[in-house]
Design goal:
The chain has 614 residues and is an alpha/beta fold. The protein contains 24 helices and 25 strands. It is globular, with a radius of gyration of 28 Å.
Length: 614
Amino acid sequence: MRAFFKILFRGLDGFRRILHLLLLLVIFGFVVGALGTSLPVLPKEAALVLRPEGEIVEQRSGDPIELAIAEARGLARGETTLSDLTDAIHAARKDARIKALVLEFDAMTGAGQPTLDELSRAITEFRASGKKVIATAAAYSRDTYYVAAHADEVYVDPYGLVVLEGYERYRTYLKGALDRLGVDVNVYRVGTYKSAVETYTRDSMSPEDREESQAYLDDLWNTYLAAVAKARGLKTDALRAYVDGYSPAVVAARGDAARVALEARLVTGIKSSIEVEARVAELAGADDDNASYKSVSFKDYLRVVRAEDKIKSHEDRKVGVIVASGEILDGEHPAGVIGGDSTAELVRQARLDGDIKALVLRIDSPGGSAFASEIIHRELLAFKATGRPIVVSMGDVAASGGYYIAAPADEIWASPATITGSIGIFAAFPTVDKALAKVGVGVDGVGTTPLSGEFRLDRPVGPAAAQLIQSVIDRGYEEFLGRVATGRKKTRDETDAISQGRVWSGLDARTAGLVDQLGSFDDAVQSAAKRAGLEPDQYAIDYLEPSLSWAQEIALSLKVWSAGVIVRAIDTQAGRPALAEVSRRLLPLEKDAERLARMAEPNRLYAYCFCEVY
């Protein structure tokens, strides 16, 4: 009997093993099938359609898994990467299958002017190939029109308009409300112009903030007008007159804003989407099945051309590129945030890769943690010590901590409209003893040292603590000055004169010596290659990014389809438009609150520029 059960158990165990193996094979086959999705088939002739969704950014922000789930649910945050757009345009310029480029702007919300300029340069290069660029939208805003102006033909809907609203910087000031609540925000800073926390300490904009903000906003607006006027073959004064007299002109035209734009030569014609499709069909061929024109989206096109370009040459001669986009925070963080440790690790990887002959750091950051900035700075110096060049390319913003990590570069490139500088440091934390006193709550006790209890939120900051914090802030500022002075080859006093927390446009930053050259990301890459002794077209560009785990790779490849199916079955659109509008209105205040929450690490100094431009 014992032998019988022994044989039975062996048989069952063997059967279990077979089932286990079969299950693994099924899972493996499912994953391989998901990973092996077929590439789109490109027509022999087609128009490439660029339809940016949301904001154009240097990096999509967020955890890859969360992004995949949001995408599957149809709730992905509206972001399109600049490199995806420009890579598609550059490839299409030389691709005989692509007969025209169509720009659709109805889903785009905006971007910084330097980002818009990078995209517009790619469009201008595409036009140089002799192929037509057609821009179309129901309505154009300041940002969408900047890009559209660089097309051969610009069309607006008969019910559309072209509104160029200029640039602004308005902030919400909370001191009055905080005073009524009995909340003190204790601020310690260095720099006459360091206005980062004024929203909590003032009722209105300080004279220094007003001075610097007006200066760089004027620079941005002047460069905008010059670029758009040149693209449309207009005089800058004529474009300025259109903007300044827009409302009266539309009133005089009895509300026909499209006609006002046409008469000012901002658009080529007034056409409905159906009429635009007919025009593109003349260039790229008609698609009778869809009653439109033969087309391919830039996302599908990129999948094809990148697959075709998988076999790269010159792998032993590379220019490494690291994108540093977002706020600078301590530790490791996903794309869209610059983690001190995670970004330093990327620089370290570049340093240890002998095939990387030069490094380009693309910065789009208002700063953040001074300590995290220092960690990145040290790793950049270690790379530089190998004798290989570092070139910085500044995007929309490279200020405060964003400039701190730029300082070691051999050369710094920026756009005329880049926001940079803001060299200064601050610390801030609230105390609520007055608020508690209003409801009859008191705090009392004893301690053993002058600092005992001086960092509590429910007690006022004492003199010993205040002196300590300000002393540390002063030293942090001097360290910051030292980093910049060494990198820029200036004296301490020369650096201090252009620092003090002041924000500069790229145009003025070059005059001040904080920037070496004005130009594009491509210009910076070419300069880095030249400094490394690499011949044009004889090197590869290697983007260094955090590697994903195998689980993340699978999740991204599967597109988390199950989440998409379940959520789409129960989702409802009811109430979303109204909620979206409320959210948009509260966005600036929400961003300020989020920043303070992220900067809540104890014992940390911050080099941050509250210099958004809307």
